[in-house]
Design goal:
Blueprint (H helix, E strand, L loop, with lengths): L4 H5 L8 E7 L2 E6 L4 E8 L2 E7 L23 E5 L3 E6 L2 E6 L5 E5 L5 E13 L6 E8 L5 E4 L12 E5 L16 E2 L2 E6 L2 E7 L5 E5 L6 E6 L5 E6 L3 H12 L13 E3 L7 H13 L6 E4 L20 H10 L3 E6 L3 E2 L5 H8 L14 E3 L2 E4 L6 H10 L1 H7 L3 E4 L19 E2 L6 E2 H24 L6 E3 L2 E2 L7 E3 L7 H16 L5 E2 L1 E2 L8 H11 L5 E3 L15 H16 L1 H14 L4 E3 H4 L13 E3 L3 E3 L9 E6 L3 E4 L5 E3 L2 E6 L7 E4 L3 E4 L13 E7 L3 E9 L13 E10 L2 E9 L8 E7 L5 E6 L2 E3 L2 E3 L2 E7 L4 E6 L2
Parallel strand pairs: 13-29, 19-20, 19-33, 20-21, 21-25, 25-28, 28-30, 30-31, 32-33, 43-47
Antiparallel strand pairs: 1-2, 2-3, 3-4, 4-18, 5-6, 6-7, 7-8, 8-9, 9-10, 10-17, 11-14, 12-16, 14-15, 15-18, 16-17, 22-24, 23-24, 26-27, 34-35, 35-36, 36-41, 37-40, 38-39, 38-41, 42-43, 44-45, 45-46, 46-52, 47-51, 48-49, 48-52, 50-51
The structure holds alpha-D-glucopyranose.
């Protein structure tokens, strides 16, 4: 055997001294004597992109991760040459580039504090096996640095001391040590000295991140091919890091329909039709709110996508219509594997048009999934995506399905050791032809993208709803997601909490877990505790595998049913609050679920906290994660907080015991908050909203709250038909004032607010609405009154 020993021996290679530099508007090119070029693009004042080539020539610049709408432009850019460095200065950052070796150091322009520092910096190994390079980057960890993000890793929030890889993998019953799992989101956040920055390594090959595991003070990342191509995103606030990251990789293209934020019921599988009816009727009979019902793979004819099993579902259109009349939206699963069957129209069309993935030497990529042997559409081909989108026409336009659930799109292949395609499979990659090594991590994303476009087209003028299991950075533009096949255990309840927080920090807020656990069966207590957590996740769905018994809200006896109902009702009451948080996420990229570190990065106590989180802007939530609990200790972040259940005010900055028997859980409201609620409905749109309830929590000082509303579906809100209420609260010793500023052209159905004031420290003398004295009634120490919805100032004054 002949081996190219010269190549093999080369090992790590490094750039050497800079011999020239060029500037082209916002982009700088530094060329080294050994032909490495580092391209630095000033994307924004706080965002720098670094890209390297080792041949002097860059490949075509193409990314599925970066949004077309990503903001560009900066206020200030200066470049200066010193004896040893080139120095780039923006209005936020200073980046020094060493002439000797391209090493970078980045400082905060305001106080010159060191934020980020290359150790070996960029280096590479030539890939003898595949060509190209294994590209590597190593940086110095700063004192007491913490790390967050990286998608769906099922571990504690802070990633320090751990190593991970990104390679989307079907991971039935994964655990804390399983890595990788379903998603590949190569984005992390570093935090030290109260300053936070992010790194988005936009490389879809199998990539690795080491957070001070291999070497105590070194954080590194590398990929098995492609370019060293990454974005440095400066905060210093973590919220701004996440917001800038979602600006780069995109925010959801639009608001979800409000029903998608309701409660969803799923099972592998509800069939035949009579079973689906039995489940949906039971929800209505027991008055447990529910908006969506799911059909898993058994609705299809032999698991053939876009077909129906006519024995189990003789009249899909009739059934979907009947469900719709009862307020249920039908969501169906669609997997990527297309059954090899010459009589099956989808297979035939795919074959005739050459839409399926092929192996290196020409045969089709054949793999087993639920239908048996399948071929797989190449979703990286734009023509295939269009075909796929059009395949949804009948399901959506004719039958009336409202959502599509994309599963197995890592892509998963059964009965093979690597659980997916072999590396040699070819992909179009939007004209950048490549192998599966490069396309694997974005395959699921491109499938969800195609599905999204089909749904959007055929459900127009309604908004589409998609769910995906696999995802790469940026997938949040198209779809929601869940955390895959978890297990009904107490540990998995905690994992679900972690994963949702982590995905939110990674720019993907529309996420939830299989409530109750997918594999195995929870007992009633675990199910109730999981529902309590799940109603605070943006995507709220109970799902479980068929082999392990029932998992509907009534499956665990009346006590649990009542608890479950109570919490699902709470979710429905809080819908305008969640919708407002979602709107902020869509507008600004602010996560809906916020880990405590994101809420208060300056408090070092939050850096290793896992269980508590902030929901929206104003609620502090902490799930109960152990059996037989009557409460728990939890960390209360700084500030004053009202216990949601009893109105008691506590001051944060320390751990506290909080009572929470099985029918309760720790929920706190930030002082000064104004929380909007709707009446309980069995499904979104069941009731006309006659009045908006506002719960006002007195604070001495100022606080701003917002309420966003629109038609709850459709696209009119994009033309200004929305209603945004901005409430400024000012509490003083003897008065409380709320000013309201409105914008948008949407007229809400209700005309009044019912206001309840909590924690008022004085007896009311008078209430003025727009300077006119109004009548009030006092109830149970709390104060409730009705005011017109468009008041501009509400003034509550103490008795003399
Ligand atoms: C996969 C999915 C699961 C689904 C099952 C059958 O395991 O993760 O949610 O129920 O396939 O389609």
């Amino acid at each position: 055997m002949i081996i190219n020993t010269e190549l093999e021996k080369k090992g790590n290679l490094f750039p050497n001294q800079i011999i020239s530099y060029e500037k082209d508007l916002d982009t700088l090119y530094f060329t080294t004597q050994n032909n490495v070029v580092m391209q630095v693009t000033v994307q924004r004042d706080s965002v720098l992109r670094f890209r390297y080539t080792t041949t002097g020539i860059f490949d075509k610049d193409f990314s599925y991760g970066i949004s077309q709408k990503a903001g560009e432009g900066f206020n200030h850019l200066e470049i200066e040459e010193t004896e040893l460095h080139y120095v780039i200065t923006t209005s936020k950052l200073i980046c020094k580039i060493a002439k000797a070796n391209l090493h970078k150091t980045i400082f905060d322009v305001k106080d010159n504090h060191l934020i980020y520092e290359d150790e070996l910096g960029f280096h590479w190994e030539e890939s003898y096996k595949y060509g190209g390079n294994i590209v590597k980057m190593s940086t110095r960890a700063q004192e007491a640095e913490s790390y967050y993000g990286l998608g769906d890793k099922p571990v504690e929030n802070n990633l320090k001391g751990k190593r991970f890889q990104n390679w989307a993998t079907d991971s039935y019953a994964y655990g804390r040590t399983t890595d990788p799992i379903y998603k590949a989101i190569p984005f992390y956040i570093g935090l030290h000295h109260k300053k936070s920055y992010g790194i988005f390594f936009d490389n879809s090959f199998r990539s690795f991140f080491d957070f001070c595991q291999e070497r105590r003070n070194i954080t590194s990342f590398w990929a098995q091919g492609g370019e060293m191509n990454y974005y440095f995103i400066y905060g210093p606030e973590m919220n701004d890091v996440v917001a800038s990251y979602t600006d780069l990789t995109g925010r959801p293209y639009h608001m979800p329909p409000l029903w998608a934020l309701g409660y969803h019921q799923c099972k592998w599988s509800y069939y035949p039709e009579s079973k689906v009816r039995e489940v949906t009727s039971k929800f209505r009979e027991l008055n447990i709110p529910c908006d969506a019902i799911y059909l898993d793979i058994d609705y299809m004819d032999g698991f053939r996508c876009f077909t129906w099993n006519s024995e189990f579902f003789p009249d899909p259109k009739g059934m979907v219509k009947e469900l719709k009349d009862q307020g249920f939206k039908t969501v169906v699963i669609i997997d990527p594997g297309i059954k090899i069957d010459k009589d099956y129209w989808v297979f035939k069309e795919g074959l005739e048009n050459d839409y399926f993935c092929k192996r290196a030497d020409g045969p089709y990529m054949k793999g087993k999934v639920w239908p048996g042997e399948c071929y797989f559409p190449d979703f990286t081909n734009p023509e295939v995506r269009e075909w796929w989108a059009n395949l949804l026409r009948e399901l959506v336009e004719e039958i009336g399905v409202r959502g599509v659930w994309n599963d197995m799109n890592e892509p998963a292949v059964m009965e093979v050791p690597n659980k997916t395609f072999p590396n040699d499979v070819r992909h179009n990659y939007d004209g950048n032809y490549c192998s599966h090594r490069k396309a694997h991590n974005i395959y699921g994303m491109q499938m969800a993208r195609a599905t999204y476009h089909g749904l959007r087209k055929f459900s127009y003028p309604k908004r589409p709803f998609v769910i995906t299991r696999s995802a790469y950075a940026g997938t949040q533009r198209y779809t929601s997601s869940w955390t895959g096949d978890n297990v009904a255990s107490w540990d998995h309840l905690s994992i679900a909490n972690q994963q949702v927080q982590r995905m939110s920090l990674s720019g993907f807020s529309f996420i939830g877990s299989d409530i109750g656990g997918f594999a195995e069966q929870p007992n009633g207590e675990l199910f109730a505790r999981w529902i309590q957590l799940g109603i605070f996740h943006p995507f709220c769905r109970v799902h479980s595998s068929g082999d392990h018994g029932d998992q509907e809200p009534w499956a665990f006896g009346p006590t649990v049913t009542n608890i479950v109902r109570k919490f699902i009702e709470l979710r429905y009451q809080l819908l305008p609050y969640l919708y407002t948080a979602f709107w902020r996420y869509v507008q600004e990229g602010v996560p809906i679920v916020k880990s405590l570190v994101l809420f208060d990065q300056n408090d070092a106590n939050t850096h290793y906290r896992n269980d508590e989180f902030i929901y929206g802007e104003k609620l502090l939530v902490c799930p109960i994660l152990e059996a037989n609990s009557k409460g728990r200790r939890m960390y209360i972040p700084s500030g004053n907080w009202y216990n949601y259940w009893n109105g008691e005010v506590i001051t944060g900055g320390e751990e506290k015991w909080v009572d929470a028997d099985i029918d309760s859980m720790p929920i706190f409201v930030k002082e000064g908050a104004i929380i909007p609620t709707y009446p309980v409905q069995q499904y979104v749109g069941e009731k006309k909203i006659e009045q908006l309830k506002l719960d006002v929590y007195y604070k001495k000082g100022k606080e701003n709250s917002k309420v966003y509303e629109d038609d709850h579906d459709g696209y009119d809100y994009k033309k200004g038909r929305y209603s945004l209420r901005n409430f400024n609260l000012v509490g003083k010793k003897k008065s409380l004032t709320i000013q309201q500023f409105n914008s948008g052209k949407f007229t809400t159905e209700y005309n009044t607010f019912k206001i309840t004031i909590h924690g008022l420290p004085f007896k009311i003398g008078k209430v003025e609405v727009n300077n006119e004295i109004t009548d009030i009634s006092k109830l149970n120490g709390e104060v409730e009154f009705v005011v017109p919805k468009d008041f501009t100032e509400l003034h509550i004054v103490a008795e003399d």
